[in-house]
Design goal:
It is built from 17 helices and no strands. By secondary structure, the protein is mostly helical. It has a single domain (2-385), classed as Growth Hormone, Chain: A (Up-down Bundle), CATH 1.20.1250.20. Helix 3 runs antiparallel to helix 16 and helix 10 (204-232) packs antiparallel against helix 14. The longest helix is centred in the last third of the chain and has 32 residues, at 324-355. The chain is globular and about 55 Å long. 57% of the residues are buried. The mean pLDDT is 84.
Length: 391
């Protein structure tokens, strides 16, 4: 039964990844439909992220009062509403209306499942979990590419919603699998600290800044990779440009798959250091002023591979670094700050690339990678002084 439950949790993370990469892969075409500047993708992304922040901040309270299985079911249902809403949007303003369920469906499920796995499973399981997020995020740009080739971008959102409905059906059928964990989860939830208490724990604020920086870079790559190829490379079809939006997600999936096999041996801290070093290699490849798109494509794939272990490793360390009492609130806060980065920084990049040119994207990614590793290294020292360092 335990193995089946893990399989369902993995499937839920595929559903979490599916909506995240659609906007970036479809935007070069959606922009022409709505007759708006390219930077307007940032406003839609910001609206989705705002709702996700609200949902993530609600997660500690939800985890204390509602079983994780119901958070999964309701959240998946909300994303289905958002996807269908986007598919029927004929005007730009309508995207903001459906960004509400689109975003609310992401935060709580992400925080609750990350907390559940961090508390009950190894670092390896956490990395494999996020690998399946990457799988979902790779699938949807390719769905969108097929839609752009054979139909329209609206169908890309609609077809993805159909996949989500299938996943929701499996989650509902699997509800009995959670019964064995229900009593233990309820007892653990009663001992959890709130957000106001948890944010005062040494090292927490530094990891929040690191999460902000990580997701600022990740979300910028999510949203603007296709536009980077459209703006800097020639001879590429709309379908190929849309499909290349999945490169960063493919890298994330690969990085987390590799990390799943080695994380228990290397430890979370070493995985993060190696990952960010690999990320810099990818950013350098993207920045090389070469003709053609191969080097940049490989660069985005390597960048995603390096990013891969960072997110799950930081969250898996939360119970050991900050204590089980604070872990749910810390993970919820980390995710809220992550989505603050997701909300604002792609939009800011949109304005920056309009003024300077989208060629500046590699430098933008590098700045946040530096902030990310710097804050984490300082946090490690602070936590070590408290005697809670987790290697």
């Amino acid at each position: 039964m335990g193995s089946l439950l893990i399989a369902v949790i993995y499937l839920a993370f595929i559903s979490l990844g599916l909506p995240d990469s659609l906007l970036g892969s479809a935007w070069p075409t959606m922009q022409n439909t709505f007759l708006v500047p390219s930077s307007y993708a940032g406003y839609v992304s910001m609206a989705i992220s705002c709702m996700t922040i609200i949902s993530a901040l609600m997660s500690p309270r939800l985890i204390r009062s509602i079983h994780t299985k119901w958070i999964v079911v309701v959240s998946t249902g909300l994303t289905i509403i958002g996807l269908f809403g986007f598919s029927f949007s004929g005007q730009y303003w309508m995207l903001f209306l459906f960004a509400v369920p689109y975003g609310l469906g992401a935060g709580s499920i992400d925080a609750s499942l990350n907390h559940y796995v961090a508390e009950n499973y190894s670092s390896s399981v956490m990395n494999f979990l996020h690998c399946f997020y990457g799988l979902g995020a790779v699938i949807s740009p390719n769905i969108m590419a097929l839609a752009l080739k054979y139909a329209h971008w609206n169908e890309g959102y609609r077809w993805t919603a159909y996949v989500q409905i299938g996943i929701l059906a499996v989650c509902i059928l699997s509800l009995p699998l959670w019964e064995n964990a229900k009593k233990e989860e309820k007892l653990a939830a009663e001992k959890l600290a709130g957000i106001s208490e948890s944010i005062k724990v040494p090292g927490v604020v530094l990891t929040l800044i690191a999460f902000f920086a990580y997701c600022a870079g990740e979300a910028t790559a999510f949203l603007w990779t296709s536009s980077y190829f459209a703006g800097t490379k020639t001879g590429m079809s709309e379908g190929l440009i849309a499909a290349f939006g999945s490169l960063i997600f493919g890298g994330l999936m690969l990085g987390r798959l590799i990390s799943g096999f080695v994380s228990n041996r290397l430890g979370d801290r070493m995985l993060i250091r190696i990952g960010i070093a690999v990320e810099f290699v990818g950013i350098i490849l993207i920045a090389l002023p070469l003709q053609g798109y191969i080097a940049a494509a490989v660069g985005f794939l390597i960048t995603g591979t390096g990013m891969g272990p960072v997110y799950p490793a930081i969250q898996h360390m939360a119970p050991a670094n900050f204590g089980r009492k604070y872990s749910a609130a810390v993970i919820g806060l980390q995710m809220a700050f992550a989505y603050v980065g997701t909300m604002f920084m792609p939009m800011i990049f949109g304005k920056l690339q309009e003024a300077v040119g989208i060629w500046i994207m590699p430098l933008y990614l590098a700045i946040f990678a530096v902030i990310n590793i710097s804050m984490l290294e300082i946090a490690y020292r602070r936590i070590k002084k408290e005697g809670r360092i987790h290697e």
